[in-house]
Amino acid sequence: MSFSILFAEHAGHLRREIREEPAFFRDLNLDQIVEAITAGKQEYDLKSFFYIALPDEEAVRYRQEVMQELGNQTLLAAIRSFADNMRAIRGYLGSVEKLYYHYHKAGWFLEAVDRYCAAVTRLAEDLNAAGLRSRGFLAFREYVAAYARAGEFRALVAETRELKAELTAIRYCLLIKDGAIKVRHYEAEADYSIDVEETFAKFKQGAVQDYKAKFASGMGMNHMEAQILDCVAQLYPDSFARLDAFCAKHSRFPDETLVVFDREVQFYMAYLEHTDKLKQAGLRFCYPLLSATCKEIYDYDGFDLALAAQLVGRKEAVVCNDFHLQGRERIIVVTGPNQGGKTTFARTFGQLHYLAGLGCPVPGRQAKLFLCDRLFTHFEKEEDINNLRSKLQDDLVRIHDILDRTTANSIIIMNEIFTSTTLNDAVLLGRKIMQRIMELDLLCVCVTFIDELAALSEQTVSMVSTVVPDDPARRTYRIVRRPADGLAHAISIAEKYRLTYRLLKERIPS
């Protein structure tokens, strides 16, 4: 098994490509988060890394160590330099595939190998000087050092330098007459261009037009240049034969482990670059304590990462919230008026646990979270005419399927279920589902208009979205731990039928 900067040795079996995002991603807006994180890094195909949950605390700590180590500016500069070199090498090789002329392709291939040798040598030196501490980067430093010392790589470096020096030393002459070009060996003819320029320099008066020919500096080569190069190859057959042999021998020159590292390390770089923008706006991130057994959890000053990115982009304030569960507490029941931040709070809870399970720093100044085996969401959806089920029936089928697949180590996020039935039926169904969740001892967040669910047992905790005391129509988006006030359902009905004080006042002429 080759080295991985993303997966600890015992988690190497997870190194697979997953193209389909988890079912809960869209409900929690994790699809938006991953899209924002990976924007501009499409060449690395990073999204699949965000779809793979880690199996245990040790695998998470391995990533946390690596992520924290990248705060070392010496190391960060080394990784960015290596990434730039590898990007240039991919550019060279990609262009080689598109070029037409044989020795033009061979020349750029030699340049790619030369840059690769320099990049690996520089990386080994930089890692040695970086003062590393994480298991991931210490192991990688050992790998790179051993690779750079190996006879095969040292031979590649020497062969590349010798061949490039040999080709660079080639000199030839072009004789152009009557539309024909003749290529022959350079015979130490004198170069009179400098003498001519010095002779006529005294006649120069002010700024004059430059009539010297300009040669293209890009990777392109026209048919005339290609024919000249072919003629040069005939003049120096041994050198160009060595170039052909070099290209054939080293056609797969990049080391696979270094190629994989270059891609995998961008998972960390992309996440840190994204969160740095939010840190600059005053938001805080932390590396959470994570446990697969203890369900006493908390997060202080947490926020919805997807919403925060939008608000910061618009230079608007981000409201942070706290939560904690202790002892037998397992279920947070969130009530309060509509548009008060309840769904955002539920999404935040899910995002925090999922991102923590990837080994990433999470929103908040301090956090302790649960490493779940699976995460499930049940958000309100529109009726699907294709399944011929009513909205209530569809809700019941979906939540039944979720409860069938959960274990005691799962997390469920439920948002506004049973809104399509009467209050009495919603209370009855909600109690039965909550009872099942409590029997399974699951961690859960339930956003609901049913205040009765907030005080079912010692396992439930009531949290309420608040409003401005002097103006109940204005939401604070703060979710606080306190008993349900019994107004959530009444307010939602009043808003539905436009019977709130504000709406009535708008309808009654003054």
From TrEMBL:
Q: Which SUPFAM superfamilies match?
A: P-loop containing nucleoside triphosphate hydrolases
> Which stretches make up the DNA mismatch repair proteins mutS family domain?
329-505
Q: Select a single GO molecular function from the record's annotations and give it.
A: mismatched DNA binding
Keyword flag ATP-binding? yes
Q: Which InterPro entries match?
A: DNA_mismatch_repair_MutS_C (IPR000432), MutS (IPR045076), P-loop_NTPase (IPR027417)
Residues passing through the membrane, by range: none
Q: Which UniProt keywords apply?
A: ATP-binding, DNA-binding, Nucleotide-binding
**Protein name (record):** MutS domain V
